[in-house]
Here is the input.
Amino acid sequence: MTLSPTMPELSERARADLRIGLSIILHNETSSILVAAVETLSDKRLAAMRQNGTDLNVTITARRALTLNARVYDNDIARIALPKSADLTWIAGIANPALDLPTPLKGPFKSLRGGASDLNRIAVNLVKSAQLLPAALVASVSETICRTTFKQLTFLNLSKQEAAVRESPVLYPVASAHMPLSVAENSRVHVYRAKDANSEHYAIEIGKPDRSLPILVRLHSACFSGDVLGSLKCDCGPQLRAALDLIGDQKGVLLYLNQEGRGIGLANKMRAYSLQDQGFDTVEANHRLGFESDERDFRLGANILKAMGIGAVRLLTNNPAKIKILEDNGIKVTEQIPLKIKPTQYNQSYLETKAIKMGHMI
Here is the structure.
């Protein structure tokens, strides 16, 4: 057994480094790049990247590039060449849609063709999965510089890293305890932790559901604003309480997955809310930030259910994507049970957008 970190563990270290403003190195058989998250980039580290690297560019998602009217030559990402005169404000303007109104006359941008687009794609995916604005400053660097000047930085090999980024985290049970709830006193909370990621997810088992039968299950993604604060902008809080009431009556399991803001994190969700205040709907706001409409990984739910010995479920959901992903990952969905919530003046348009643009059965 070795004490050296595995590639998935290095992936998590890289995300942590990017969040605090450190750069990382991505490498494959032919090239190496120095990567920094635009959101946490400092003037000093920008200067260091200019001094030690070449071909500097800001890599963003195709979603964000569309907002900026920048050309996309690499399918799902765009690499915008960094002018010599560009400062931190110019770079931030590419990444942050909050700066679109104050600085509307961006560009013209020079999008790059060819080159190490696979490395750049991994770079922006790491920044995105760190729940930062999905934009990375990238510089080409020599292997000599990587092994000398930047030898203390986290170093990732592309071929192994690519698999690590795309695989769903392996979950393992951490703790379990009886917790009487208002909906049912005979309830138990199970905590699961991702083996190679800094996240925990929870299974609330209400009663003692018979594993030989399809079990009533709800996959609920964490929503601090709705579940805790009672926000009226979404239907998350009412859905959580309605699901607990139903499961309390019939026995079953509620999975509480820490995937805030449809997987983009609370800070980015607040950025999306700010864009909604400007007139964009929830999907348009995500796209302007550079995210997809939904960044959640429902394979986590399937993994937990299998770990609990549950192979068939009656699923409380309005989202057909959850049904497909569970079934694709070995969980049989015998029944889809809608979770209807009465709309309010604050979330009516939000619910309509989910139905029209995301296929929710509302």
